[in-house]
Specification:
The chain is mostly helical. It contains 15 helices and no strands.
Length: 345
């Protein structure tokens, strides 16, 4: 798998450079070089650190660098704007950062919850702590008004629960934990009901997210004219794309989609190779998530991948936190058979 992934990676970078030459585009060439450096550092250099839990370092790095960006403006100025954007230039940027933090919190919570289910009382306090962080981060996503970020968080939850159940089934512990899982599920439903009943959370959720969906769908334009641009890019991209200025000069709005952005700028060959790279990432991260390795961060690579892909459906996430986290967390477990034996909790 590592050889296949590296081969696709090199193919993607080489074709991106060819696209830059075909379009006489220095910016596209620069982007291709940056992508090459990201791929080399995450998929070649990082896997060489065999005895270090890289995902633990990555998790701490994200928390230490991005949590203060969220917390400090809240402490200094409070919720001074709605939709809330903190120190970021727009609410969507704030939302995508929170969605990535949410996926990170969720990954650790799921592992702690798995420990709680399989080892009875172990992990209870840790699970409660991470659950509180999940609830707070989801509330902040909602008040950002970013529909894409809310959907990304919900998709991450669905995928996380599915892989938790698959992991329990693979470990042959699903029946022994079924009653406990049901009890905690009922408790979670009660807590959610209380939050909806006695707080203003539902009002925020409806006014900032659900109402926007209703308005857009009522106008028959759920994607804000993005679908028209996507269709145009699908028709005009060609093998090597139209260059880095394509969506500025020849379309009405920006791509608002990572994959469409790569398609329009780099062409069909590049986007197909990038999708194949994502598929190999999913294969590696999914196998690691359902393995029986004792690693607090075993769900992190998978949920960083899911976060990146879900955010990429309606935003351009090139070289942003979710993309960088996806590459480095996947790189840390790309040599799956070795890592399962060597990683420790």
């Amino acid at each position: 798998m590592n050889v296949l992934t590296i081969s696709i990676m090199y193919g993607f970078v080489i074709v991106s450079c060819i696209s830059a030459l075909v379009n006489h585009d220095m910016m596209l060439m620069f982007t291709s070089i940056v992508m090459f450096l990201l791929c080399i550092s995450s998929l070649v250099i990082v896997p060489s650190f065999e005895y270090i839990n890289i995902n633990k370092l990555i998790t701490k790095a994200i928390l230490f660098t991005h949590v203060p960006l969220v917390v400090i403006p809240l402490l200094l100025y409070g919720l001074n704007t709605l939709p809330y954007r903190g120190i970021f230039y727009n609410p969507n940027s704030f939302g995508t950062i929170l969605a990535t933090l949410f996926a990170l919190f969720l990954a650790i919570f799921i592992y702690r919850f798995e420990i709680l289910l399989t080892k009875k009382k172990q992990g209870l306090l840790e699970s409660i702590g991470w659950l509180v962080l999940l609830m707070v981060s989801f509330f902040l996503i909602v008040i950002s008004g970013s529909r894409t970020s809310v959907l990304s968080a919900l998709i991450s939850v669905v995928v996380g629960v599915i892989f938790l159940v698959v992991s329990l089934i693979k470990a042959k512990k699903i029946f022994s934990t079924l009653m406990r899982l049901f009890s905690y599920s009922v408790l979670g439903a009660i807590i959610i009901g209380i939050v909806f009943k006695f707080t203003s959370f539902y009002d925020y959720l409806y006014n900032r997210i659900i109402y926007k969906f209703e308005i857009k769908s009522g106008r028959g334009d759920l994607f804000d004219h993005r679908s028209e641009v996507w269709k145009q890019a699908l028709h005009e991209a060609g093998f090597f794309g139209r260059g880095s200025h394509y969506f500025v000069n020849e379309t009405t709005v920006a791509a608002h989609n990572t994959f469409i952005s790569i398609l329009g700028e780099n062409g069909w060959i590049s986007v197909i190779l990038f999708l194949l790279l994502i598929i190999t990432f999913f294969w590696s991260t999914a196998r690691y998530a359902i393995s029986q390795v004792e690693d607090t961060y075993k769900y992190v690579p998978l949920l960083m991948l899911i976060c990146f892909c879900s955010l990429s459906m309606a935003e351009i996430m090139n070289f942003k936190l979710s993309m960088i986290a996806m590459f480095f967390t996947t790189g840390s477990i790309i040599n799956l058979s070795d890592k399962i034996e060597k990683v420790s909790k």
